[in-house]
Structures are given as C-alpha cells and as structure tokens.
Amino acid sequence: MKIRRLFIANRGEIALRIVRGAQRLGIESVLGASDADLDSVAARLADHCVRIGAAPAALSYLNVDAVIGAARAAAADALHPGYGFLSENAALARACQTAGLVFVGPSVATLEAVGDKLTARAHAVAAGVPVLPGASLASLSECEQLAQALGWPILIKAVGGGGGRGLRRVDAPSQLAPQLEQAISEASAAFGDARVYLERYVCGGRHVEVQLLGDGYDVVHLGTRDCSVQRRYQKLLEEAPAAGLAPSLLRRITEAAVALGRALAYRGAGTVEFLVDAGGERFYFLEVNARIQVEHPVTELTSGVDLVTEQLAIAAGVPLRFTQCDVVMRGHALECRINAEDVQHDLCPSPGQISRAVFPAGPGIRVDTHIEAGSSVPPFYDSLLAKIIVHAEDRMAAIDRMAAALAGCDISGVAVNTALHARILGDAEFCRGAVDTGYLQRLLARTAPLQARIATG
Predict the structure, then answer these.
(1) What value does the mean pLDDT of the chain take?
(2) How far apart are CA 443 and CA 268, in angstroms?
(3) Residue 93, beta-bridge partner list
(4) CB atoms inside a 10 Å sphere around CB 75
C-alpha cells in the first residue's frame, strides 16, 4: 500500500527526523504532540500537529488510546512510533491493526517475542546465538542458589526491562536481598511487570550491537556499533564500526544477529545487542531493540542507507531494496549525545529555556536536533537536546573532527554535557579504542579531584 499520511507518535529530535524523512518521500506528516510540545520545532515543521494529551508522558505519549484516537481523527494511513515511549509496545501495534493503521515497525508477534527478555533469550538460543548463563527465579533462596552457581558478580535484570531500569549489579551475597527488592520494585513501577532474572556479569565487557533491516522474509545487517561509553546503563557516545575487534569475531556477531532476525521473521529496522568479553573472543546476546535506535545516524553515515526511508518503504510493503552484497561500509562515525545535564552535579537533568543554540557545520558533520534559541526543555521527558555526528576516513580522524565540532557547539540557558564529551575525546584510554562499559566511571573517578579543585578555585 502507499502511505499518504503518516502519524508520528513521538517528540524531540526523532519526531523531527521522521517529519523530514516523510517530506522527502512526499508523505504528509501529522505530529501527535503533548501540551508541552505544541509549539516545538517539529510541530511547526510537520504538515499538521494535533494534541494527544497533557504534558506528563503517561497522559500523552504513553497513552495508547489517546495516540490511536488522534491518529484516526487525523485520517492517517500509518503510524511511526519513533524510539522510546510506545515504540516497542505490542499493544500499540495491535491497536494499529484494529484501527486499520500501518504500524511502522515489527509485527505484533515479534514485539511480543523480544519484549519479554526471557522469551527473547529462548529465541536466541533456538537460533544458535550464545547467551550468558542465567535463569528466571521465584524466591530469594532460589536467587541465592543460582548466584552461587553463577559466581559473583551477577546481574539482576527485569524481564520487561530496558534503558537500564530494573537492572542491578550485585557483587556479594550481602547485597543480594536489598538489590533484588529494588530491582523488583523498579521493574514493577517502570514496566508493570515485577519479574526479574539473573545472569552472570561479565567484567570488562563491551557493548556491541548490529543494525538489522528486514522485510519479514529476508534480513540484512548494516554493520556494527560500539555503545560502551555509558553511565548508569545509559549510552552517551556511540561509534560505527566497533573498533579493535578481530574480523572473524565481527563476522560471527553479524551472522548471529542476522540468524536471529531471520528466525523472528523480522520486519523493519531493529538492533541486536551483544556483550563482548574482555578478551575480545566471546560474545553473548543481550537483547533485541525492535525499533530505530537513538544512535542510528552513525550507521547511516557509514553505510549510506537512510534507515527512516527504509522503515517507511518496508512498512508500505516494499521488499528489501538491496542485498547483503550491496552493503558497503565506509569510514568511521561518532555520535555524541548532547543532554541537558549538569556535569557538576552528578549529571542531574537541567530543564529550562534555551537562550542560545549554535551548532557546528561543515564537511562530515551532521546535527540532529529539535532545539533553537527560545526552545523550552520540559522536565517531563528525556534530556536529549541534540546529537552531534561526524564521519571521517578512520577513527582518529573522526575523533579530531568531533572535537572540532564540539568546540563549535554553544548552548546556553540550561546546563549541557559538551565539556564531558570533550574530556572523553581527549582521553588517552578512549583514543586507544576498545573501551569497556566501565570506562566512563573510571574517567569520572580520575578527573573528579581536578573538577573539585576547579569548582573551588
């Protein structure tokens, strides 16, 4: 079918990215916005903007009935959920089916299969993809026995989890009971599902992921990304391809991702996430993100594939427009997430009003943002303001280009984390490559005394 009018059930930079993608294809865009976003840049640039509810996400972007009602009232043909919010929600996809809307994403069956982490693990095992030792549990005593068998440290993970919520590292038996209680409480509040499970923790592991595109029949990959620079399980800086790994390992990782995608009859854009051990020899399945990722631009720049355009084509019933042999990866790309966070106060969110917003430009530099001078940064949502993305012939050239790009970024009115990114880019450990998920904590610990001296004069 031809998509003529697209309803966008999201906000911020991804909403604006989808608006522009739709406009390039001649598709009319309708933005569903909360009260906090009715005067946003995306709302102004979309062909139409409709209200979906009050500012709190539970009353707007997370309200399936409100989203579907607004999309139907707008006479939309299809709905793009973006990332976050309801993007991986099987109930939304099912409601789209009932309402006669094309859901720009995987099938209901796929969303149900990968949305439950235990079910996703089972599918990975069936597809021959390695998983970490672990299991579900029903009681504290069962948890204690399994933890002893796995060996310390261990991870407690929410079955319905994501974004680092319901995730707890436990280093010793004495920590198990309180951490288990916290994980269950957080999982229940965040996902409405109190179930948790245990996995062996991999010290010094790297977070490596594979971008997939599928049409429900065939699946191709668009290379790897490294997302190991993260804090509290939240990604901060991503790059493509993953550096410092043997070609044979990268081949096995991408083959595993494609095998899982085919087993799931995957449709649309999706990402399979893996943990690579400290020796760079073994990898383990983490999860499937059944949506477009925040970090998708680094893959677009290295592959030359517009992922949003491909999402819309696949949703319209067009078979994959290229084969694996057609995919040629070139150069290296980095993405820095510019967040409204106060680095001097433990990266706490910094809502407010943007008084100045100047972004870099030039060859090999891309900026995805939804802010400008005068924009409001509401306290209700994620603190992401912009993504600075660069592409160059190799990793060190990309690092140099990113450092220059960050120097040309000037945002005032709220605290931002550009200085932290500059610190990372200038750090010898990061420049050597192949940092693990504990890297940022080590960097902050090393530089904390210096920052304290600067703060006190």
Answers:
(1) 94
(2) 37
(3) none
(4) 11
Task: Provide the greatest CA pair distance for the chain.
Answer: 64
Q: Out of 17, 121, 231, 291, which one is annotated catalytic?
A: 291
* CB 120 within 8 Å of CB 288: yes
pTM, rounded to two decimals: 0.94
The dihedral built from the CA positions of residue 247, 439, 222 and 287, taken in this order, carries a sign that is positive
Task: Return the CATH number of 206-456, one of 1.20.210.10, 3.30.565.10, 3.90.550.10, 3.30.470.20.
Answer: 3.30.470.20
Q: Can 44 be counted among the known catalytic residues? A: no
Pairwise CA distance, residues 34 & 32, whole Å: 7
Cα separation, 283 vs 278, whole angstroms: 10
Summarised one tens digit per residue, pLDDT across range 131-140 is 998 888 778 8
Q: How far apart are CA 340 and CA 343, in angstroms?
A: 9
Task: Please give the distance of CA 294 from its chain centroid, rounded to a whole number.
Answer: 4
Would you kindly state where each structural domain of the chain is located, as residue ranges?
Answer: 5-104, 133-200, 206-456
The amino acid at residue 60 is S
